[in-house]
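FAQ
Q: What does a multi-component entry look like?
A: The components come first, one per line:
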Amino acid sequence: MNQMAGKQSVCFGRPVEMIGYAGVVGKKEGEGPLGKYMDLVVEDPLFGQKNWEESESQFVKTACEIALRKAKRKKEEVRMVFCGDLLGQMIASSFGLKQLDIPFYGIYGACSSSGPALSAAAMALGGGYADTALAACSSHFASAEKEFRFPLGYGNQRPWSATRTVTGAGAFVLGNKKAGKVVVRGFTTGKIKDYGIQDPFNMGACMAPAAADTICQSLEDFCKSACDFDRIVTGDLGAVGQKLLFSLLQDNHVDITKNHMDCGMQIYEEEQQDTHAGGSGCAASAVVLSGTILPKLASGEWKRGLFVPTGALLSQISSNQGRNIPSIAHAVWLEHAEGLQTGANQAERM
Amino acid sequence: MNQMAGKQSVCFGRPVEMIGYAGVVGKKEGEGPLGKYMDLVVEDPLFGQKNWEESESQFVKTACEIALRKAKRKKEEVRMVFCGDLLGQMIASSFGLKQLDIPFYGIYGACSSSGPALSAAAMALGGGYADTALAACSSHFASAEKEFRFPLGYGNQRPWSATRTVTGAGAFVLGNKKAGKVVVRGFTTGKIKDYGIQDPFNMGACMAPAAADTICQSLEDFCKSACDFDRIVTGDLGAVGQKLLFSLLQDNHVDITKNHMDCGMQIYEEEQQDTHAGGSGCAASAVVLSGTILPKLASGEWKRGLFVPTGALLSQISSNQGRNIPSIAHAVWLEHAEGLQTGANQAERM
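Then the predicted structure of the entire assembly, as tokens:
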């Protein structure tokens, strides 16, 4: 039986198998330290399309296709796809996925979208609503700059606290294979947190309070301490947000300084790539998840991870109105599957 | 046990109870034929706020609060809220709901959002992930005109095929009360359909193919014929879209001319209110659902309804790029609960 855990989490009665995943990134991300772990690096920022938005659609469609191929599933076998992006009315997702012809849920959590997409897809599996489900999300440097900031040609200067939107997409296939090496054990649905921050060039500071809140709640709900996880992985706090997160958690007597990792800080080599505080966007956490976190969990190098993508819930309109930037973080509890097959959780898994 | 039904639908093993619902609308909607069935009519289009977007947030927050009060549930008891709107980055939902402090999923289906919000919330209940969940959505005439069309002061003329965005919000509480009079029996997740239509002033024509596709698939998956439902209710096709829907369904040998109802055609008195093809927006279907459909199902006047809200998946950017307007429709199978308590489904319900 699935169980509500604590105040805002869920534990699956039978952990949900992750049977395929893919990360597709742009040229700059391909040149970064994780480039070699990506399934596809696309040199052309337009990905053969006519504009940035259609390019982003092509990224997410391609990531879904590769993930399905790796999972040995046809698109016709997928009962539901949960997908999101940063663009207004989520046109990257809808135009990208319409060609796959899969029953579609648009999921919005800003840069945290991989989290709610994964937890919703896992709910679909765990509830018996689907035998195969997809979770996906995308972002694109150029479409995001157009949506939220300045025209690229303007050459706007960015402060050191600013992050760079990752061009790419991640896709994750959940299914029943009885041979998956990584499972979703549970998740914590994030609450919207507003600490009154208004600087759109310091997203890390906006999102750190949401990450801290969700991490504390997850640990409490799952009756775990921080050291029970090989890594606690936030989405795109960047260097500035990480400091703030550590400090907020220490106020709650939680120390993750030894096992914290931030996807945004992994994807670029800051000194060489001039990316300031790190990478951001839905794709930042999604492609790091598919490129390094899931493979490490699959191989058993890591046994247990808490994936906590973070999102800032602003729009150009809310920003221009001088309003605060509320944020959200969703947690997904991932685990190497071998322990489940041989250990104490065997019964639970059946 | 929950069951996957046919190609893209779900039947709940134990139908999910709808224990509270509310519709809050603006002045023009309050003056319409359904005004008297609304829980609150707000005369001030700004709802006491500083701008249209914050006003829309106030509508959705208020609808949630009234629905919770009617369901006799506190906000602290709600495990998850699934909520969406039409604005870029869904700021109506995020700013409106942040004050309720409920674990939050942003759901996007354009004007169909009440559908995926309801089916996702029902999945949460049916899977044991929540004992109380909220589904909600909102739209606002002025924020939508600003987002998609022209500044209000410009006084743009609109063709007869155009619809008017409904100002309002609907909220629905799903829970275990063992006394709910309306239940969700199942749902069909919509696919994105693109028939090549590009006219943003004829949304009915854009969405009719998606509605036809989902209705046909629902009937097939649930092994029902159209006449098994007291009403098959589409979202906001309007007068133009309805004709097209009838014609598309007749091509598939499905006749819903006797039991079809379109929420967009119900909410205004066209001749007197100068609303052209009808109402649209997430709120159109949501407030008609809460104001008339659910009460009729609760009283037993209707035994069974198929609620099929429709959405056009465009943005200002995709429109300006001259791209097609794909669309989606989600179906939710609603039923009067008495039959379930006394009839053949008793066992299934436990």
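Q: Is there any commentary attached?
A: Sometimes. For this entry: Residues 339-350 of chain A have pLDDT under 50 and may be disordered.
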